[in-house]
Write a structure and sequence with these properties.
Length: 63
């Protein structure tokens, strides 16, 4: 996910994307706890995506 893609999205789209990413993070953490997660680095990637979305939301709020 690129920052330029996020900047083109509306606030409503960013909010729905944030909910989706948080849900995915919950599922990944659960899979990691029961040792079914193949790639534990995916958790870090999702966290970074969440941070990017939140940054884009904050930019839109400041405008």
């Amino acid at each position: 996910m690129k920052a330029t893609e996020l900047n083109k999205m509306t606030s409503a789209e960013l909010t729905s994307k944030l909910k989706e990413l948080k849900s995915e993070l919950f599922k990944l953490r659960f899979q990691n706890e029961i040792n079914q997660l193949d790639n534990p680095h995916k958790i870090a990637d999702v966290k970074k995506d969440i941070a990017r979305v939140m940054t884009a939301l904050n930019k839109k709020a400041a405008e």
